[in-house]
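Is iron/sulfur cluster placement plausible here? Inputs below.
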Amino acid sequence: MSVTPQPAMPKCWRVESKPHKFCPGCGHGLVLKCLGEAIDELGIQDRVVFGCDIGCSLLSWDFFNCDSVQTHHGRTTPVMTGIKRANPDLICIAYMGDGGGYAIGVGGIVNAAARNEKVTVILANNTLYAMTGGQMSPTTMPGQKVETAPYGRDPEATGMPTQGPEMIAAITGAGAYVARGTMANLRQLKSYIKKALQNQIEGNGFSFVEALSACPTNWRTNAEKTWEFIEKEMPKYYKVGELKNPFEAKKEAQQNG
Ligand SMILES: Cc1ncc(C[n+]2csc(CCOP(=O)(O)OP(=O)(O)O)c2C)c(N)n1
Ligand code: SF4
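Reply from A.M.:
I modeled the complex. Tokens:
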């Protein structure tokens, strides 16, 4: 009898909710795969509370075999902060899009970051409001055509794209972990997410990872153009790398005696 090979899934993924509900080619599934593998490797599934926002991220409400909560738009960080403060042994993960995190939820993120709350925020930046049909978001790039800017984003009228990790790195104290990864480099993205979780496990401070993510449906791109956008267009405005790494800082301090 032949056995149909099954795709490898993280152990903490909820098999009953797969195949998932994202569009083909969507970046959310890849970011959540990195998160799932990081949870597995750290052995923290029983301690995780996963919170997702409104927007396409909410399609992950039943993604994991972990305690999960779906919040009002932009309110995931404060909800996770409350749960963490009530039970510091839990590992609280807030998952959202750029609209939820940098527009309607920016107050939640900025204040949690400024207080160095010991939660982990993972934000999928796909440069627009995807779930509602592709409107301009804070991370839409200059010249990028979206539903509410059909001639392209004009920075004179609407400003330059929000640089989330750069902003959060500037306002967090010692012990914060801040990075920007991309779905074009999943190994690296997973390592950033793993460090962001490890940082929470050690109780060092706020942890934040932005992931450059694709929305082929609203970008109206085929597979080739999607990769071109992710690999060539997004890095023009969004630099991939670690901005704050308390593990490195600790190592350097030890080396310097
Ligand atoms: C308070 C409030 N305002 C507006 C909306 C409508 N709304 C639902 S999803 C969404 C955009 C989500 O965009 P983003 O957070 O970037 O996530 P994505 O869908 O791109 O993953 C908006 C504006 C809402 N649900 N609640
Ligand atoms: S609309 Fe975009 S972000 Fe939403 S599920 Fe589809 S591809 Fe993903």
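Short version: The chain is about 40% helix and 15% strand.
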